[in-house]
UniProtKB/TrEMBL annotation:
Species annotation: Candidatus Terrybacteria bacterium RIFCSPLOWO2_01_FULL_58_14
Listed InterPro entries: HAD-like_sf (IPR036412), HAD_sf (IPR023214), PGP-like_dom2 (IPR023198)
Domain of life: Bacteria
Protein name (Swiss-Prot/TrEMBL): Haloacid dehalogenase
Signal peptide: none
């Protein structure tokens, strides 16, 4: 019987956080240069940005009238607000040229070339090639507010080699996974990802199995939820690994 593997994209096949981290690092350096001797310690700049960025997730985006969520507008506006806050703390006036540079840095995270430069996570190519050669069905299921950008990123990464028809959705739901699995043999389907609420829970609830590859800097609640899910579903339905390279070693799903 043919198995199907439904892969997440960001954080699972591509180190998306690295692209964001590079942007934040560049932002910190620009702040040091722009504020000169008035600049706080680089770690303090990072901490202030993180606090502002997190607080803005539920704030209203003036461009859309909707919450910022995890949009690039939030990322860009958070950097600008952080710069303005740092200026205010030193009784200085913000510089429009610096704001423009900050916005350029922030928008780097929505340039497909940035992801092409970092490439896939280590071991992903071998895993995908091996599963494909074994005759498995490979599906890419990714969520993003901007489907055009996500498609361009997929193509820049060369992923159409394994996923000629990627699925881009605004949310991953139980219904999404049920439709991908089909009416029969849902247990032959495996959802693979780094997000419990997006990749793991809805897949399990739809009757699929799941492989969780947690991010090293995941939230505490995800650590707690992982333990709860293992108790609820058992290790036959939910497999937890540290690295995508371990996937081929899992006899429950991936060994021929």
């Amino acid at each position: 019987m043919r198995k199907r593997f439904i892969f997440d994209l960001d954080g699972t096949l591509v180190p998306t956080q690295l692209v964001y981290s590079q942007a934040i690092g560049e932002f910190q350096l620009v702040m040091l240069h722009a504020l000169g001797r008035y600049a706080p310690h680089i770690k303090d700049i990072g901490n202030q940005f993180d606090a502002i960025d997190a607080a803005m997730v539920k704030m209203e985006n003036p461009r859309t009238g909707q919450p910022y969520g995890f949009s690039v507008d939030r990322f860009s506006d958070a950097m600008v607000r952080c710069y303005e806050k740092l200026c205010t703390a030193q009784d200085r006036t913000s510089d429009p040229a610096v704001i423009a540079e900050v916005q350029r840095i922030a928008h780097r995270v929505i340039e497909p070339s940035a992801y092409q430069e970092v490439g896939l996570v280590s071991g992903a190519t071998r895993v995908l090639d091996t599963l494909q050669n074994r005759g498995a069905d490979l599906v890419l299921l990714t969520k993003h507010e901007d489907a055009t950008f996500q498609q361009e990123k997929i193509e820049a990464l060369g992923l159409t080699r394994w996923f000629p028809e990627p699925r881009i959705v605004s949310e991953k739901t139980v219904r999404t996974f049920a439709e991908l699995a089909g009416p029969k043999d849902a247990w032959l389907n495996w959802s693979i990802g780094d997000s419990i609420p997006s990749d793991i829970e809805p897949a399990l609830q739809a009757g699929l199995n799941a492989i969780f590859i947690p991010s090293p800097d995941r939230w505490t609640f995800e650590r707690q939820r992982e333990s709860e899910l293992l108790q609820q579903w058992g290790q036959d339905r939910l497999v937890c690994i540290r690295d995508i390279r371990e996937l081929l070693q899992q006899k429950e799903c991936c060994r021929p």
